[in-house]
Amino acid sequence: GNSVTQMEGPVTLSEEAFLTINCTYTATGYPSLFWYVQYPGEGLQLLLKATKADDKGSNKGFEATYRKETTSFHLEKGSVQVSDSAVYFCARAGGTSYGKLTFGQGTILTVHP
Amino acid sequence: DVKVTQSSRYLVKRTGEKVFLECVQDMDHENMFWYRQDPGLGLRLIYFSYDVKMKEKGDIPEGYSVSREKKERFSLILESASTNQTSMYLCASTPGDLPAGNTIYFGEGSWLTVV
User: Fold this and answer.
1) How far apart are CA A28 and CA A1, in angstroms?
2) How far apart are CA B90 and CA B8, in angstroms?
3) Contacts B61 to A, Cβ<8 Å
4) Contact check, Cβ <8 Å, A100/B106
5) Is residue A96 over pLDDT 70?
6) How many Å apart are CA A88 and CA A35, to the nearest integer?
7) Which of A91, B11, B52, B87 has the most Cβ atoms closer than 10 angstroms to its Cβ?
8) Residue A1 pLDDT more than 70?
């Protein structure tokens, strides 16, 4: 079946450090891929998405490239801020899914000043 | 802006109680979902609905049921709450299929504690 695997956290960084959170997915069909972010006490917000191979999603300085050859969608940011501290979820949808998403387990990011 | 509203942010219920979690969306979306979120497990789909009175099981439907009598409202029901249902519950909606480029919108979540 469909699955998504994220790197285990938590991840702790200093402000302005480079961030990578790895995400891989099972290669059933041609799924759309997403990164969601959950700030403390809030619901999930869409951070970025990519709907086909080689697409790059980007938002708020974050980027992720849909890599079909490695079935990956790693999240990167060149210089993190304290305000980026949150839980990050990778997710996939595919085919006629009625909008169903399969999520990774989530990665907690803490950024220190 | 799309709004998905969950009626209760924090609930404490006793084992064996019947629990209702309500979700309302204001953008005429066809599809609605209930997920539960647990540390280390991410979000897991409980049930979803793609039309009024239509429902389908997700990955973990056991111990839950749902109701969708009106397009804007999707209710999650715990017939007899148990302590292993203590969790954060997230409702979501989307106008159509995600590969078509639509976005799924989430509510703020309902923290349920069963004692």
Assistant:
1) 8
2) 11
3) none
4) no
5) no
6) 7
7) A91
8) no
